[in-house]
Amino acid sequence: MPPLAIRAFTATSALGRGLEAHSRAIAASAGGLVANDFSTSPLPCWIGRVAGVEDEPLPREHAEWECRNNRLAWLALRQDGFIDAVRAARGRYGASRVAVLLGTSTASIGATEEAYRRLDHGVVPRDLLRPAIHTPHSLAGFVTRVFDLEGPCITVATACSSSAKVFANAERMIRLGLIDAAVVGGVDSLCDSVLFGFNSLELVSAEPCQPFDANRKGISIGEAAGFALLERAGEGEQAPLFIGYGEASDAHHMSTPHPEGLGAELALRDALARAGIEAGDVDYINLHGTASQKNDEVEAALVARSFPATTRASSTKGFTGHTLGAAGILEATLTLLAMRDGVVPANLGATTPDPLCGPQMAWQVEHADVRIALSNSFGFGGNNACLAFARQGVPA
């Protein structure tokens, strides 16, 4: 696969707004999980909540898109010069040649929940009579409107792999000549459907999550927004590179991964092949590592049997919580920062390693020369994605 240049990228999560907030938190192994105070009847658990979302409504010109999810998107878009980068791409290629490809699992369902809670004799309250927000396409529609773009606009909703799979969509569209650049990423915000839904599956921990810990008790749910701008790489490219991806759908079970990691391994092998690299070339893997029983044991075994001891690996869910449809872009961002900063994130929260874990696991923060890295995203229903990145200047 010809590499794509990542011209700009950004994220906003419980660790803060923008790249430098995330870089500082990773370097200091300072997580962002807090005791749950979300909703009128909070579950006894911990969450990765983004501070200040409630206090910053959308600008008046975007009022029809007003909801928590789009507020979170707007916070992220304004970080790290991302808006200027996209506008520059629009100027280079034209509005019809830039795509918006975004992943989400719930989009603005929080606003729809509120509308149903406030029904008056079966009628939606006037302030929520805005059809644009009561649809899974709300996020992509909002971002397209922000940039006044006219290219393909796609929402990917494949659970926790959503905002990883959009990278693959962008590569195919650019390679086929349909577009010249793509805004990729995703947003998922806290809402009752997510918190109570995962709790009903007995997947939510009452304590901060502990990925790959032998005594882990489940996930901590978070919220996040992140975006990247992809274009064709030029000669002597200095931007970080997206060099490969793998996708698989094993459809083993609605909410449990294949016991032997079949789909995850297929996605991994596919990503290595597209990138033209071997497992031994990988310096760091950002693991999906949700702290659920089955996910972690399957992924731990896969990494242990597939990579040399020199490859470093960790989950960053202990920093941010599991951000669901935004997990792919958030963890891609943290992977890119690991390459930029030479800092391998700690596997925060784990104190007693699961015996299935191999020597690849970085239990504490490490400093390393990260030239090539992977980011894993494994969703419900056996939707699996693996992304491969290379540091600027590394031959692809």
TrEMBL record:
InterPro entries: Beta-ketoacyl_synthase (IPR000794), Ketoacyl_synth_AS (IPR018201), Ketoacyl_synth_C (IPR014031), Ketoacyl_synth_N (IPR014030), PKS_Beta-ketoAc_synthase_dom (IPR020841), Thiolase-like (IPR016039). PROSITE patterns: KS3_1 (PS00606), KS3_2 (PS52004). Keywords: Transferase. Residues 23-391 form the Ketosynthase family 3 (KS3) domain. GO terms for cellular component: cytosol. One of its GO terms (molecular function) is 3-oxoacyl-[acyl-carrier-protein] synthase activity. One of its GO terms (biological process) is fatty acid biosynthetic process. It comes from the Bacteria. CDD domains: KAS_I_II. Belongs to the thiolase-like superfamily. Beta-ketoacyl-ACP synthases family. This is 3-oxoacyl-ACP synthase. It comes from Luteibacter yeojuensis. The lineage of its organism: Bacteria, Pseudomonadati, Pseudomonadota, Gammaproteobacteria, Lysobacterales.
